[in-house]
Amino acid sequence: MIPRYQTVLFFLLLAASIVMGAALWQLRNREHQRLLEGEQSTPTQAPQVAAAVQATLMVANDADDTLMTQELALPLPQSPNERARAILGTLLDLYAAQDAAHSVPGGAGSVLQVFLMPASAPHEEVAHSRDKAKQNVVVPDAETPAAGADSAQGGDELAVVNLSGAFAASHPSGIETESLTVLSICATLHANLPQVTEVRFLVDGQPRETLAGHANLMRTYLTTEAEPVQGAQP
What we know:
Layout: H1 4-41, E1 52-61, E2 66-75, H2 80-96, E3 111-118, H3 123-134, H4 149-152, E4 157-163, H5 165-170, H6 175-192, E5 196-203, E6 221-222, E7 232-233
Parallel strand pairs: 2-7, 4-5
Antiparallel strand pairs: 1-2, 3-4, 5-6
Helix pairs in contact: 2-6
């Protein structure tokens, strides 16, 4: 026969278990309702995707040493510096493709930065962009002279293109192939940003004598030097 005190203890524990279970159930329901209310109060926002715009690439062809126009619809950022970088990245992606007419490894990642500034910018401002390139810093347009009054008034601009050392190291050597790469970059910048009339090159944020032994990277290139032949590719 079960002692009376054990029976009482059993019913007390049973009652406590029931009360605790009910309390936990209520807490669970309350927390679930709170989460639902939080989800309903948070506005649902679609991810922001840049609208596709028409871009013009001046694509090099090793077969006849020419530049041909290729039009593409690309989702480009609003920032002029980043837009220029994205366009050049697409150009180098074409060159890195297996069936490229101008085969150069590296792709879009080979363009580290593009800085835009007035073509008449003093040496100190050009040096400032070089310092930022050494640090691999993306400079906001508000910090570049090109985003100021000169650009708004349609003044000529200088583009400083910072390429990666790996791109230069793997670029095929030869005066024709190196010149085509340099001129296609200059022509592509001018085709999409007509105000860009001059281009200078850095490699890993540093001046470099040549791209791969031949094309001079110490000079300033005029975009008028890169005249494409007539014709276009779809």
